[in-house]
Design a protein that fits this description.
64% helix, rod-shaped, alpha+beta, single chain, 3-stranded antiparallel beta sheet, 3-stranded mixed beta sheet, 2 helices
Length: 194
């Protein structure tokens, strides 16, 4: 074999190798594209699955946070209610002392004694009650309201129509638009004719 033939054979062999390489390269490109598609599809599925999981987790956390917020608000309200209940109990006890001072003043006044010091104490106590929005329940000449008044006695009274309060036995009080202590009253009733 001559040199030329060798070169020519070598050249042909090289071309065949190149063609085989090109075919192999084409095969590799096809495999790469298929694999790339599978990878991107797998990645997309993975991303969607992870996104779905994260959305579920986010919803759970939102619900948890709303529950915690509601619990916090309920606790705050309960705490205020407890404080008000304790405060109302103290004010109720204070009202007993306040009424005792008023009875003592009236008794001393009836005896003709000087009650100026008792009057100033009662005035101070009234200002404390006003500060806490404690108001007496008005009863005189009013119609009986079971939400505000407790009937102690019914009196036959021709001067008043039935169910009108004619006498107050014990004063009642309201705090923050709620009855703290009911008024004890006597109400009129119709005369029973025999």
């Amino acid at each position: 074999m001559s040199e030329n033939e060798k070169d020519e054979n070598s050249l042909i062999e090289s071309q065949e190798n190149m063609e085989r390489n090109d075919e192999s390269l084409d095969d590799v490109k096809k495999i790469h594209e298929e694999f790339k598609g599978e990878i991107s599809q797998t990645n997309e599925e993975t991303i969607q699955a992870e996104t779905s999981d994260l959305n579920l987790l986010l919803e759970k956390e939102k619900e948890k946070s709303l529950r915690l917020l509601a619990d916090c608000q309920n606790l705050e309200k309960q705490t205020i209610d407890r404080i008000n209940a304790r405060g109302d109990k103290i004010i109720l006890d204070f009202l007993t002392v306040y009424e005792d001072f008023i009875r003592a003043k009236n008794a001393y006044e009836g005896e003709g004694r000087n009650v100026d010091s008792l009057s100033s104490i009662i005035k101070n106590m009234q200002s404390i009650l006003d500060h806490y929005e404690v108001k007496p329940i008005e009863v005189k000449g009013k119609k009986l309201d079971p939400k505000l008044h407790e009937v102690v006695q019914e009196i036959e009274d021709p001067d008043h129509e039935e169910g009108i309060i004619v006498k107050e036995i014990a004063k009642g009080y309201i705090i923050r638009d709620e009855v703290m202590k009911y008024s004890k009253v006597c109400v009129s009733k119709k005369l029973i004719k025999k």
